[in-house]
From TrEMBL, chain A:
Name of the molecule in the record: Zf-HC2 domain-containing protein
All copies of domain Putative zinc-finger, residue ranges: 4-38
Taxonomic superkingdom: Bacteria
Amino acid sequence: MLTCKQLVACSSDYLDGQLTLGERLMTRQHLLFCRNCRRFIKQLRLAQATLKALPPAPVEGAEALAARLAAERRATR
Amino acid sequence: MTADEQRLLDRLLAGEQRAFAELVQTCQGAMRAVAYAIVGERGADEVVQDAWLAAVRGLAGFQRRSSLKTWLLTITANTAKTRYRQDRREVLLDDLPAPHGSIDDARFASDGHWLLAPSAWHEDSPEALLSQEQLRECLEHTLLSLSQLQSSVLLLRERQGLELVEICNLLDLSLSNVRVLLHRARLKVFATLEHFEDTGQC
């Protein structure tokens, strides 16, 4: 049986599908019985989703860059 | 390559400025992350500029086997690697302290059980969390505290949705190193969100 500490140590691999079948089963089994670790995984997923939802930093000078690239492309045609 | 990408590529080949603007919007962030991981803050913008120019010059030869983004990221990584052959092996797994720490050994008892279990967060959606301006700033502060590679790997995985193996190939890192970098970065982000949800401040 995994300990909570071991579960946290392999939590990223669990989310990324990097565990072997055996490791995955052990992780699932631990989660079945451990409320704290279920919460941890749930909130780790929420942290992932939150990062993804952060508004993108505006690209400075995007229009000028696009104009330059388009001109470059037309010149090389 | 998707049908949408095919159409975009045709417009790019025709030299349409709007099409380039769209491409810049969707790819610049990921390109910057790749450049930053390899050359650091100082050279990153220049590498991205050079990569764009190299891409435009090679556009006609683009094979359409991969997505445009994958192709652009490969060009960016190659541009960065050719220009800066610095040895970054020893800084590879640098783990810098984060503002709110991580989920470290102190959280566990000697038998491996939680000593201080994760608290339940008040919000359960990204939108609700991010609606708090202070939390957004707090999160950005934590992201800035990450090492060059940790922050790039996190961004490429979580925000750009790259596969781990793509990240390995672009940055010349082993899979186990990418996994370690990603895990450490995620735990720091987790600790920041937990801290904010517990205390209501950064």
